[in-house]
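Appendix C reproduces, verbatim, an entry submitted by the partner laboratory led by Prof. M.T., so that reviewers can inspect both the input and the predicted structure.
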Amino acid sequence: MTSIKTVYSERGSVISKIAFVLGGLATLITGVVKAEVSWTGEGAIEQRYFLQQALETRQPRSQLSGYFKPEIYADWNDGNDSLLFRPFYRLDAEDGERSHGDIRELLWWHGGDSWELKAGIGKVFWGQTESIHLVDVINQTDWIEAIDGEDKLGQPMVSLAWISDYGTFTAFALPYFRERTFPGLDGRLRASYKIDTDNALYESGDEDKHKDWALRWQHTLGDLDLGLSYFTGTAREPIFVPQISETDIRLLPYYRQMDQIGLDALMVAGAWLLKLEAIHRKIGDESFYASVAGFEYTSVGIFNSQYDIGWLMEYQYDDRDELALTVSQNDVMFGMRIGFNDFSGTEVLIGYVQDLDYSQTHSAFLEASSRINDRWKWRLESWLFSGDEPQEPTYYFRRDDYLQASLEYYF
């Protein structure tokens, strides 16, 4: 097994080069526009341990990696202009595909009295629910980072927002498409065959240069937050086309064109949070609806203690039923969020997802974190999978149960 020390010795100059570039950028911004510049960020070492031997002998039982995520922020023109730069780099001791870098954000912001303009590489989040985010389609998922799909690649964009008494109206122009990342053959939580990301296929003749567009309206009406969105362009989720040769079988990602209308809502009713995400999507020759709805109820100071417990439940639906390429066509999620309300900010989230069509298909997850001091933080994550149906995506992860421990440093 390759050690993290070997990886750093082979690529040891990467972090120093990033630091040099960031320092040069900060100096340039300060000198050219006389901006106030701040430098922050984080780094971490993560150890992932798999509870079972892999389906293939080449896959590791443990996986050591580390990431570096600095941030430069500058503002000038009395705060009417700002620049945010967030690069990201990960080194993985086992999976070469997981060792990668990305510009998460490099975004210029300019604000007026009732409008704001953003240009560059950005991250946009739409959604309200906990288990999945159906309406969130601007950024591509960085799948090699985590199985929950929460990590996103930076998206080249220009956006213009108008802020009014009737809500915030935002238009997005997305001139370049980012392909989804996938683990390599030496990695885990992957399909049985190699996904050939070097030979992706596209429905559009413009391929990754296709111009995507999006519109969103967001407004708060008392205790209700509403969002209505429209997206047209390249689907972020690929389907896979088998390519059979004399030596192997590979899967080529195929990105189709789609149109999507999305609705998200969050209502606060005392200790209750009522959540909804729903979409109608037309992609290729198919047109379908999908939704996720549920609640979170918080018990404050349970049993006269300092602890708060949030109870979560969400139902996931996709009207394609078994033809859906997701794990959420007819599933229910139960969860519990525990806030310790201590000086260290300790939090624990536990969740369980059950497929209502197949009783043996389910998954569970755990997230826990706490501060050690102002600079250091520990984090634990775990995912457990069970699936006996080959048509279910979780079938490929049935021997990939894992526990991950992280030590994070903030500067």
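Residues 13-33 form the longest helix (21 residues). Additional entries are available on request from the coordinating office.
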